[in-house]
Design a protein that fits this description.
Layout lengths: L2 E13 L6 E8 L3 E7 L1 H4 L3 E8 L7 H9 L5 E8 L10 E2 L9 E7 L5 E2 L1 H5 L36 E2 L4 E13 L4 E5 L9 E6 L5
Antiparallel strand pairs: 1-2, 1-12, 2-11, 3-4, 3-6, 4-5, 7-10, 7-12, 8-9, 10-11
Length: about 210
């Protein structure tokens, strides 16, 4: 199994066994992910397992999803996500825990970043402020956005003010400090995206940055 679905609980700190230094870590609660469906190469063209996380009432789930979950013998879940299989064999109805990360040093974490609303270029793109000297009124203005008569338009992708945050973000190669089987939590050192109690997808790092 290449990954699990989890929930970002918050932050704490642990002490490094070798150096004794304090290491800030993010606590990710994965618990037990239930396998709702197994994709095979013969039938689907690829090998993967569809995992479910979180309990949900039947009335909170759409009818197509509810029928899909009941078909494969799984309980209603809040989040469904597919993860590639790395040679391990799983079956529908089985639960998978943090033991899949026992011998893993680095992980990739995907989540939805905090939404910060409409923001200007200084906050959104780290633009430099204008001078605060006498006579200057260009303090937080974005500056020129294109030429005049040619090409007579603004190129797509121009850095301007707009929606900031509330987008899918993946942070790669975060150090996995610890795995707690009893509590079903992962301790990750690094910038885990998303708000507290937000859903994140944790995968084994492939070695590529």
């Amino acid at each position: 199994m290449q990954g699990l679905i989890g929930q970002k609980i918050g932050m704490t700190r642990v002490f490094d066994k070798d150096s004794g230094q304090v290491v800030p870590v993010t606590v990710i609660q994965t618990g037990s992910n239930m396998v709702h469906q197994v994709k095979t190469v013969e039938k689907d063209g690829y090998a993967a397992a569809q995992l479910g996380f979180g309990n949900s009432s039947e009335r909170s789930v759409t009818k197509p999803c509810l029928g899909h979950m009941k078909k494969h013998g799984g309980t209603t879940a809040k989040v469904l996500k597919e993860f590639a299989l790395d040679g391990s064999e799983v079956q529908a109805g089985q639960t998978v825990g943090v033991e899949v990360f026992e011998e893993v040093a680095f992980v990739d974490v995907t989540g939805t970043s905090k939404g910060r609303g409409f923001a200007g270029t200084v906050r959104r793109h780290n633009f430099q402020r204008g001078r605060e000297t006498h006579g200057n009124t260009n303090h937080r203005a974005p500056g020129s956005i294109g030429a005049c008569s040619y090409p007579a338009r603004v190129f797509p992708g121009q850095k301007m003010a707009g929606q900031y945050g509330n987008a899918q973000v993946t942070k790669k190669r975060l150090k996995l400090i610890g795995v707690d089987k009893e509590s079903g939590v992962l301790l990750v050192h690094g910038a885990v995206p998303g708000r507290t109690n937000g859903v994140v997808f944790v995968r084994k790092n492939s070695g590529k940055k």
